[in-house]
Specification:
Elements: E1 2-5, H1 12-21, E2 29-32, H2 43-51, E3 56-58, H3 62-74, H4 79-85, H5 89-100, H6 104-111, H7 115-125, E4 131-136, E5 139-144, H8 162-167, E6 180-184, E7 200-202, E8 205-207, E9 217-222, E10 227-232
Parallel strand pairs: 1-2, 2-3, 5-6, 6-8
Antiparallel strand pairs: 1-9, 4-5, 7-8, 9-10
Length: 238
Amino acid sequence: MHYVISDIHGCYNEYTEALEAVGFNDDDILYVLGDCIDRGYASVKVLQDMMARPNVVPILGNHEYLALKVLGEMCAESAEENIETQISPETMRAYTDWMFNGGDSTLEEFRALSLSDQYKITDYLDYFSLYEKVCVNGKNYLLVHGGLEPFSVGMTVEDFSVPQLLFSRADLDRIYFKDTYTITGHTPTISEEGNKGTVIKRNHHISIDCGCVFGYNLSIYCMETDQEIYIPFAQESF
């Protein structure tokens, strides 16, 4: 089976529960649609679990993008000293942006790692793809974290810049590609009026960020069955 999950945001217990709920095994493939880190309680544990599974395909989210701009320069014995004396103004701006977007919890976990394990994390983050194209049972899917905006007819995913793919919001009221289903995260479905943390399927869109880290659900979607399973956020995880 082919599964997709998005915006785990360090919710490690909910993530592992989702894998258990679908009986995820070595014959399956899991696409992680970005933002597996930040805001939550165990971002590094999520990354380490993903790294240990060869059948997990990581896709870049805006939070990994922000982290990557900083963590490479943090791989030193004294991160504090690096921030004050060695990091460039550009990286300092990236650091500020990352902290503003919930990176402090991830950075705290990262600093607790050995230097060798820090490099393993940064090497893995650098391995994330920008998007994936998948065909399952004759249906075409485009997996991308954010959106394809601004969009006009005739454009392809290759026409978009990295920030557009990661930071733009998918327009669920338009069809991007008639022959392809676009699966996105990034925008919590709870932002749509009346939504209580469930997947939105509309106009060849499948929007799967159900706001787990905000107290709602983590969803895991199966391409073969067009079904999803929800794992509620557990407050005791903190």
